[in-house]
């Protein structure tokens, strides 16, 4: 068993407190499906349905859960009062509804860096916006917090082509492992170079499971989790 660091314990304690608040409106519905697979399988398969997934385990994640996990990490950053928060919103249009929240966070910690494609929002002088127009990067939704005493990351990739956030489906995980958080942060910041080889290096460094979207849709049509993965 891998030893849990004091940094992880602190982050997990805060996570458990905040996730209850953000998941409460979701009323305990299945919001994620655990992904199963082995080194011999090319694609992952769908396993157990859960409301709140375990850390450091790959899951199929619904849009409502993505928001709940994102807000939880943001709250951890706000409470910690120092460090750097990095958020990838795919398109900066998605940032607008979170603008007030992120402006408040930027006044509480050292650095807030927001990635996304599109025009940079106005009225956010304390936030560092990074243009991310590469199509591979646009598939990712990530919220990462790094500080000397507390670290957390949510990293996931969109697997379908839905344009509306409520209908998007993601595969990914969240973690409090300080070594993993710092490694992701370091490699992600290298993407600012804009070189395609850096993007390819990023995907090879942190590969997320491959899963058949048609199988996912067929599974969800028969699942109690269906409502969490679709606005229809």
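^ structure tokens above, recovered residues below v
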């Amino acid at each position: 068993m891998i030893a849990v660091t004091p940094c992880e314990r602190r982050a997990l304690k805060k996570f458990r407190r905040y996730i209850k608040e953000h998941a409460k409106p979701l009323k305990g519905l299945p919001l994620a499906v655990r992904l199963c697979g082995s080194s011999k399988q090319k694609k992952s398969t769908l396993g157990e349905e859960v409301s709140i997934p375990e850390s450091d385990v790959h899951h199929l994640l619904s849009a409502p859960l993505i928001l709940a996990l994102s807000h939880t990490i943001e709250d951890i950053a706000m409470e910690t009062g120092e460090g750097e928060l990095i958020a990838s919103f795919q398109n900066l249009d998605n940032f607008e509804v979170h603008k007030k929240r992120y402006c408040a966070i930027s006044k509480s910690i050292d650095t807030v860096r927001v990635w996304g494609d599109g025009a940079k929002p106005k009225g956010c002088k304390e936030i560092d916006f990074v243009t991310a127009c590469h199509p591979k990067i646009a598939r990712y939704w990530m919220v990462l917090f790094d500080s000397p005493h507390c670290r957390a990351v949510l990293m996931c990739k969109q697997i379908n082509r839905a344009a509306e956030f409520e209908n998007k489906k993601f595969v990914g995980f969240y973690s409090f492992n300080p070594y993993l958080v710092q490694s992701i942060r370091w490699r992600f910041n290298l993407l600012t170079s804009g070189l395609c080889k850096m993007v390819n290096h990023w995907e090879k460094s942190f590969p997320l499971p491959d899963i058949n979207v048609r199988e996912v849709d067929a599974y969800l049509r028969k699942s109690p989790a269906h409502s969490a993965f679709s606005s229809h």
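The first strand starts at residue 32 and ends at 36.
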